[in-house]
Design a protein that fits this description.
The chain is α/β, with parallel strands linked by helices. The chain contains 17 helices and 14 strands. α1 crosses α3. It is globular, with a radius of gyration of 24 Å.
Length: about 475
C-alpha cells in the first residue's frame, strides 16, 4: 500500500507525503530524477520505484531508531516536536538542522517527541521501556493508541512537568537491575522552560473572569460548591459548574495542585501528578475527566459553564500575540493583593517571570537531580505561592542520564544543551509556544553543570562514563 501510494503520487503528479524529514529529503531527490527523465520506461520506473521505496523506508526506520528517543509531558509537546498523524511537528528537539550556532553535522537530532503525560514519560525512562511511548497513529480517538516504536528501542530521556521525586532519585541511584546510576551515570533533571498553568473557562456572556486562588480551590475541590451562583461574583448565574480535569498522571495537574494546596490544604490536602488522587471526583455531574492537554481543551469546548486548567500553548494563539482583553476572554485572571495593591493578574510573560523572584538554582553542580527541579527542595514553598506575579507557575523539565554508550547520541544531547542554555537559537520558538525562557542564572548554572567539559557532572564526562551508558 505504501509503495502504491507513492507510485500514484509520483506518476499522477500529486504530492509525495512527508513521513519524516529524512524521508522527505530521500524521496524528493530521487523522485525528481524519475519524473524528469522521459527516456526511462514506465515499467522500469514502476519496478525501480518499488525497490527504491522499500530501501527508503528501511533507511528511514534505521535513521529513526538511531536518534535520541523520548517523550512524556503533553504540556511542551508542540515545542519539542510532537509525534502526530499524519505529519510530525517540528520543534526544538527534532528540528533540522538541529542548531545554527554552532553548526551541527549530526542532524536530525532527536526523534519525534511522544506526548503521553509526565508520569508515563518518567516510567518509560526509568524502566527503559519504549512500549510505553504510545501515540494516536491514525488520528482516530475510537482506536487504541499503539507504541510509536514497533520494535523496542532505548529510551534516552523523558519530558516531565512532574518533578523527580526523592523516591525516584533513590531508586535510580540504588538500582541493581542495570537501569540506574551504576550503569548509566548520575540522574540529570534540567528545567527547560518556564510555564504558567492557565485556567480557561467556557461561560457564555462573560468576557472576563476574576477569581482569587482561594475561590479556585473551592471551585475545583470543594464538594459542596456545585453551582456558579455559590461563587462570589456569580450570584446571578444559576448554572451547574463543570470541572474538566486531567484523568492521567500529569505535571500540569501537579503544578496546579501545588498552588491550590498552598492556599487551602484542607480542600487540597496533598500534591500529586494525578488530580483524582487528591480531589474527590466521584460527583460525575460536576467532574469531567479528559486525557491529554488536547482532550482537556476539547472537553472544555463541549461543556458549557465549564472550567479547567491547561498549559498556555493550548489557548489557540501565542500569549505574546493576545491583547489583555483577548487573554482575559479566554482565561481567569487571578486576584491578588501584593504590598497593599490588589490586581487581577493574567499569565503574561512579565507576571510569570515575576513569580521567579528570589528562586535560585543549586549552588553546586553535584546537587542531586531533585534539587535541580524548580519547585522542589528550597524552591518548593516559594514557587507554590510566589510573593509576586501570577501564582500558578512551574517549569517543564527534561530528564537524562549522564552517560550514553552511543557517541552520536551523546553528541546530540550535548549539542542540545549547548544550543538551549548557551545560545538564543530557541528563543523565538519558546515565545511562539507561549512558554518563557529560563532566567539567566538558571540557564548559566545548567550549562556550567551539565555541558562544560571541565564539570565532572557534565553529560559524557570521560572519567565517569568510560565503558558505560544508556545503550544505543
Amino acid at each position: 500500500m505504501l509503495i502504491q501510494g507513492y507510485w500514484d503520487a509520483v506518476f499522477v503528479g500529486g504530492e509525495v507525503p512527508e513521513i519524516c524529514s529524512f524521508g522527505s529529503y530521500f524521496f524528493s531527490n530521487f523522485f525528481s530524477l524519475f519524473r524528469s527523465n522521459s527516456m526511462i520506461s514506465v515499467n522500469f520506473k514502476r519496478n525501480a520505484l518499488s525497490a527504491l521505496v522499500a530501501v527508503g523506508v528501511m533507511a528511514m526506520a534505521a535513521a529513526a531508531s538511531a536518534q535520541v528517543v523520548g517523550g512524556g509531558a503533553t504540556l511542551p509537546e508542540e515545542l519539542y516536536g510532537k509525534a502526530k498523524f499524519p505529519t510530525t511537528s517540528i520543534g526544538i528537539l527534532n528540528k533540522t538542522p538541529a542548531s545554527s550556532s554552532p553548526a551541527n553535522p549530526l542532524n536530525p537530532s532527536f526523534n519525534a517527541y511522544v506526548g503521553i503525560g509526565s508520569g508515563g514519560g518518567k516510567n518509560s525512562f526509568f524502566q527503559n521501556n519504549s512500549n510505553l511511548l504510545v501515540w494516536d497513529h491514525d488520528n482516530n480517538p475510537a482506536t487504541a493508541n499503539v507504541p510509536f516504536y514497533s520494535t523496542p528501542v532505548t529510551v534516552d530521556y523523558a519530558g516531565s512537568d512532574s518533578l523527580v521525586t526523592t523516591a525516584e532519585q533513590s531508586a535510580y541511584d540504588a538500582a541493581t537491575n542495570a537501569l540506574g546510576k551504576t550503569n548509566f551515570g548520575r540522574l540529570i533533571q534540567a528545567p527547560a522552560v518556564l510555564t504558567s498553568v492557565t485556567v480557561p473557562y467556557n461561560i457564555a456572556g462573560r468576557t472576563s473572569v476574576n477569581l482569587t486562588s482561594a475561590q479556585l480551590a473551592q471551585i475545583f475541590a470543594d464538594p459542596t460548591i456545585t453551582n456558579w451562583n455559590q461563587v462570589t461574583g456569580f450570584s446571578t448565574l444559576n448554572q451547574p459548574i463543570k470541572v474538566i480535569y486531567r484523568a492521567e498522571s500529569s505535571g500540569t495537574s501537579e503544578i496546579f495542585l501545588r498552588h491550590l494546596n498552598s492556599v487551602n490544604s484542607t480542600l487540597v490536602p496533598s500534591v500529586n501528578s494525578t488530580f483524582s488522587s487528591v480531589v474527590n471526583v466521584s460527583n460525575t455531574s460536576k467532574y469531567v475527566p479528559a486525557t491529554g492537554s488536547d482532550g482537556v481543551v476539547a472537553a472544555l469546548a463541549a461543556n458549557p459553564y465549564s472550567i479547567t486548567y491547561v498549559s498556555p500553548d493550548k489557548l489557540g494563539a501565542p500569549l505574546n500575540t493576545l491583547t489583555p482583553a483577548q487573554l482575559a476572554a479566554k482565561v481567569v485572571a487571578i486576584t491578588r493583593t501584593i504590598s497593599g495593591v490588589t490586581s487581577n493578574l493574567l499569565p503574561t510573560e512579565v507576571n510569570v517571570t515575576a513569580a521567579m523572584t528570589g528562586i535560585n538554582p543549586p549552588t553546586s553542580a553535584s546537587a542531586p537531580a531533585v534539587d535541580w527541579g524548580i519547585g522542589a527542595g528550597a524552591t518548593a514553598t516559594a514557587l507554590a505561592n510566589p510573593s509576586q506575579g501570577y501564582p500558578i507557575v512551574g517549569a517543564t523539565n527534561l530528564i537524562f542520564s549522564q552517560c550514553y554508550a552511543s557517541a552520536v547520541d551523546n553528541a546530540r544531547i550535548r549539542n542540545f544543551f549547548n544550543q538551549h542554555y548557551n545560545t538564543t537559537d530557541n528563543d523565538a520558538a519558546i515565545a511562539a509556544h507561549s512558554f518563557i525562557k529560563l532566567p539567566t542564572n538558571w540557564r548559566t548554572a545548567i550549562y556550567n553543570a551539565f555541558f562544560t567539559s571541565t564539570s565532572p557532572e557534565s553529560i559524557g564526562f570521560t572519567s565517569v562514563c568510560s565503558g558505560k551508558g544508556r545503550p544505543a
